[in-house]
Amino acid sequence: MSQPQVLDLLPTDVEADLRSTVRGLLDARCDPTAVTALYDGDRAVVAPLWQALSRELGLAGLLVPEDRGGAGAGAREAAVVLEELGRSVAPVPFLTSAVIATTALLETEGELLAELAAGERTAALLAPLSTGPQDPVPVLRTDGAGLVSGAVTSVAGALEADTLLVLVATDGGPALGVVAASEASVVPVSSLDMTRQLADVTLDGARVTLVLDEGEPAVRRALQAGAALLASEQAGLARWCLDETLAYLKVRTQFGRVVGGFQAIKHRLADLFAEVESTSAVAANAAAALAADDPDLLVATCVAQSFCSDAAVHAAEEAVQLHGGIGMTWEHPTHLYLKRAKADQVALGTPGTHRTRLAELVDLPGANA
Description:
The protein is α+β, with helices and mostly antiparallel strands. Helix content is 48%, strand content 14%. The chain has a domain at 217-361: Butyryl-CoA Dehydrogenase, subunit A, domain 3, CATH 1.20.140. It starts with 12 loop residues before the first helix and ends in an 8-residue tail after the last helix.
């Protein structure tokens, strides 16, 4: 009997160097003030930051094989990037384009994948951000002449994309098609998290090019990859909340004492530390399972999303509360993390959805009741 595969969760030197590089760029170019300006409609920080990450660092091609023009890395490296993006609540379409859209296109031919890897183009999948790996994905219909029509709401990454991926109904089943964003009506909507603003997309007789006959399995794999790696973004977000709260409570005084010295605060911080450490562990496990194509990938993803989604929200709520009055102000960045955490909580499947799926996967009693 073969032994089960043991995943190595320890970071490699390559991952450590990548983390240092990405963090350095984000520290220099992703100022919290510029991110906060997104809520006033100023998106000036988005395009330059995405260009720096995708082209200068070449991060858009991490999941693309070298022979297709990419970096030939894997899910673990992408997880490192997402963790750092979470720490900075960076408003870039890495998850939607470099992970989800790119994964959906891995089995296609043509130049689109190489152009995405080079950062020359950016893509978004036409599905609501809340769509989980097992949820129905919108399938649009054509008029028989290669023109597709339909509407999809709450699409993430569409505002930054020049290429849209869509499932198209064909006689052989849903196929994956490509539509130029210039042929679509992309209407931004006010979102809780403006660092990943949603948009309603309408196609009305748009020209579509079919790139993969079996489109639905490819989209399922893409959503699965997105859900597994979203946990790393949530882990990075939670880690920032813990670190910044600890730093603040070491210098904030009340009644002549450092606030962090109060027993009740110590207990809350100890509980939060344990939760954040667990978040990092389950996120790393999901990324490693994805990288190794582990048989327990579905279980690892459901565990990660079930835990990390709620943990990130809790960490952000604690950060706001323990920062006291300053945590409630617009000038302090804690509100950015709370909004991203709440939006991530329902992205790519809610925690409840993933727990239900997990119960089915591990045959828990009552799972099918």
